[in-house]
Write a structure and sequence with these properties.
Blueprint: H1 4-11, H2 16-26, E1 33-38, H3 43-56, E2 60-64, H4 74-77, E3 85-89, H5 92-101, E4 105-109, E5 127-131, H6 140-145, E6 148-150, H7 163-179, H8 189-203, H9 207-217
Parallel strand pairs: 1-2, 1-5, 2-3, 4-5, 4-6
Length: 220
C-alpha cells in the first residue's frame, strides 16, 4: 500500500514541471513487454539496453549475471537507472521462473531461427524479450525454454547486430505498435503511484535524512 501522505510530502518538494513530467512519462510506461539480457560481457551494452528501455517506455529490465557480475555503466545509462526497474538474477532458471510467474511468454531474439520476423510479431501477449551475449547469443537453456523466436529482417551480408542496436530496434518497433493498438498496455493506477513515489525519492538529495525526519514527525 502506497503511503499517499508521504508521496504528497515528497512531491511538494519537487517543482511543478518535474511532477508534470513524471505524469507525462508514466502515461507511456508499460510492463506489457519486459526485456532480459543474459550474461552480457561488455558492461556498456547492458547500460545501453537500459537506456533504450527508458527511452521507449519499458519499465523493467531483467539482468542475468550467471557468469559476469557487472555494475551498470552510469555514463552510458545517462541516468536511466533512476527511472527503469532492474531485476537481477544469478541464474537463467531463476529469471525464467520469475517471468513466467508474472504471465510473460519467453521470446528469444536470434538471427538464426525462422519463427517470426519483427513486423509479424503478435504484440497482444505479455512478452519477455531475451537478448544474449555478443558472440555466443542466447544460451541453450533459454533457447530450449523459449515460447517463440524473433528476429530483425536484414538484407545485407552481416548476419547479426550488436545487442544494444538489436534491442533498440526491437523495443522501438514493438512499443510503437503497442501504443497504436487497443491493447491494455499501460501501468495500473497502483503501479503509477508506486513509480511516482520511487521517482520522487530518486530526485531528492539527502532523501534518507528527509525520510527519517518525516516519519519522526509523523509516526505510524
Amino acid at each position: 500500500m502506497i503511503d499517499l501522505d508521504y508521496l504528497a510530502f515528497l512531491e511538494n518538494i519537487l517543482t511543478e514541471n518535474r511532477k508534470a513530467n513524471f505524469l507525462k512519462v508514466l502515461e507511456n510506461r508499460t510492463k506489457h513487454f519486459t526485456v532480459a539480457v543474459e550474461d552480457v560481457y561488455q558492461m556498456h551494452n547492458t547500460s545501453a539496453v537500459m537506456r533504450s528501455c527508458e527511452v521507449f517506455g519499458i519499465q523493467e529490465l531483467n539482468v542475468i549475471e550467471q557468469r559476469f557480475g557487472k555494475r551498470i555503466d552510469k555514463e552510458i545509462a545517462l541516468g536511466a537507472q533512476k527511472w527503469v526497474d532492474i531485476n537481477r538474477f544469478d541464474s537463467v532458471s531463476g529469471c525464467l521462473s520469475d517471468l513466467r510467474s508474472k504471465g510473460y511468454q519467453i521470446i528469444a531474439t536470434t538471427p538464426h531461427e525462422k519463427d517470426c520476423m519483427l513486423e509479424d510479431f503478435d504484440i497482444s501477449k505479455p512478452s519477455a524479450l531475451f537478448f544474449g551475449t555478443e558472440k555466443e547469443g542466447l544460451s541453450k537453456e533459454i533457447m530450449d525454454n523459449a515460447d517463440g523466436f524473433l528476429k530483425i529482417p536484414m538484407v545485407g551480408f552481416t548476419e547479426s547486430l550488436n545487442i544494444s542496436v538489436s534491442a533498440a530496434i526491437i523495443i522501438q518497433s514493438l512499443t510503437n505498435r503497442l501504443r497504436r493498438s487497443d491493447i491494455d498496455w499501460k501501468l495500473s493506477d497502483e503501479e503509477i503511484l508506486a513509480k511516482r513515489l520511487d521517482w520522487a525519492k530518486n530526485s531528492i538529495r539527502d532523501i534518507k535524512r528527509i525520510e527519517a525526519r518525516y516519519y519522526q514527525d509523523n509516526p505510524r
